[in-house]
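Each lists chain and fold; for instance:
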Amino acid sequence: MRGRDLFERACAFAIRIWPVDAKRVQDRRRLVLERVRSQEIELQGLEQSVQFESLDGRRREVLARRLERLRRQRDRGRAVLEQPAFYQALEYTGLDVTLDGVLRLGGVAALAGLVISAIALLAGIVTARSVPIVTALALATAVGPIGAYVFVASYPEALARRMRVASLGAAPEAVNYMAMSMRVVPALDRAVQFAADHVEEPLASRLRKVVWSVHLRSPAGLEAAFLRFAAEWGEWQEDVKRALFALGSASVERTEAGLDRTLEKARQIAFEGTKARIMEYAASLRSPTTVLFALGVMLPVIIGAMLPLMSLGGLTPSIGGGSRPAPGTDLTVPAILAMDVLFPVGAFAYAYRILGARPGTGSSIDIDPPVSRRYFIVAMSLGLAAILAFAFATGPLAIFIGLWLVVAAALAYLVPGLRALERRRRTIAKLEAEFPDALFILGSRIAEGVPAERALQMTADATRGSEVSALLGRILRALQTSREGLEEVLFSREGVLRDVSSRAIHAAFRMVVEVSRKDPATAGKTIVETSAYLRDLRQMDREIHRDLSSVVDAMQTTGAFFAPIVLGVTCALYGLLTRAFSRIVVLGLSPATFLGVVGVYLILAVAVITYFRVGIAHGRDPTEVRTQLTRTWPVSMAVFTAAFVVSGAALGG
């Protein structure tokens, strides 16, 4: 969560450079509080007048409108004092910030935006001859500071919304883990704690809070705390609320058959609701994806193709027959701002917003990427060399050297350690795919009365040659070479599962340890049901990936092939126009500059498309983004280079 850390540090920095006057803050709060109290007193008087006094219809209508206006003013004052949305967001996200710090950071951001946009406006007035450019800069000067303040001030609430939506996919996991635990011991507190230990944040913290609220005696009783948690979660996810209510009722079931029916009902409600919500999200993606594709990819490509003609805007018939060519419209600054700043930043912001509504699937693999300062220095050196190549470029060759240096710098930062990371991810993914069948075999053997260690050996023999067989073999060797029990062998600091970064496998083995203490029939039945859950989870993931991936296939093809070809041909045509009209008009944007602007845009567009495509298909997966970028950037740049060279040769250049 680098964004969270950056925001917290920025708030602390804003407080240091712009300290908060505690006395002024208290005075403002006191004024608002007094105004709210006076409004409440006035409201009470008006309500009594409306209720007890005999009024005609017109007078009653006037008082009703005044009452409504006063209620709105009072509610706004209370919201200013209490800030419920802000503090709820802090509780949910765990951000270590204060309201004053966020407001100070918003003020600093607004001031910085005002200074930057004002400088740009002055530079535009001095250098630009185009009224639209100056108008656009003036609009940015007016809107930019307000937008910066609103963005910073609303960041905690926005982060809470994204985290809540992303964690919706973990809710079926939590329901299933609680159901698994209650099949062993029908105790709600153990079930909540077991789920909290095996689901992602922030849901895990919310579940732990349920248990802690009981210890702190607020509210009285675990059932009350759990039902309040279910009601809060139901504001976002009605089906999960129903599933949690079913779990709460399961804790008071008297018979095993009733318990089984209630727990199965809870599981089905949670899974079906999550699947329906994912499908609804996939169906709703068509329009925003089309808008992103049109405004973030196609429109910049069209504008890039039109820039050569736009640069000829200063071309006018000359009657005097002057020997010097007329100057064309200088589009250097607008082209750079539009192609390399406005369109990529706008496309990324819109893609980020679309992905913020994507429900999580709860199946991500947690692997921390390696960090190497040496490769970071190499990447920075290549980036500096690219800047120098752009600064001293006089022709297409130097520009292409700079573009390829940018790609090389990105690869130098992304590639190191990626192969080992991918190999580890593939191993874990294969292990998760094979694990449900192995768990079914294990549960069946235990149900037959076979001891746990012998059942593990039989399962390893039945799955020989697979990743899960290798894992079970390591567990058996650890059991045979140590005097520790199964729980210590699996979950101790040096346990066998320390390198297995899969929450589902950890939770399943934890359940195996728990149920192995029960009678064989109950233990075997619970393990078999766990295998069925894991199989259902994988099936749901496959359906989600299939439905969501089809939405962005066109963007992948465009970013890798179509856009590079069109932009390469456009750059070659621009060079031809420059040579053809060099005796008549001097184009404001040189061919080398135009090539550099278009090349940088292509690199940024490919990054945005890849981020969006991976986010849609896989959710939050930085490793997959790195993998796809290392493949797509060289391909798109090679296609762009080839298109430019071939087009230039065909056009006689």
Summary: The mean pLDDT is 78. The longest strand covers residues 326-327. Residues 165-283 form one domain. Residues 300 and 339 are 7 Å apart (CA to CA).
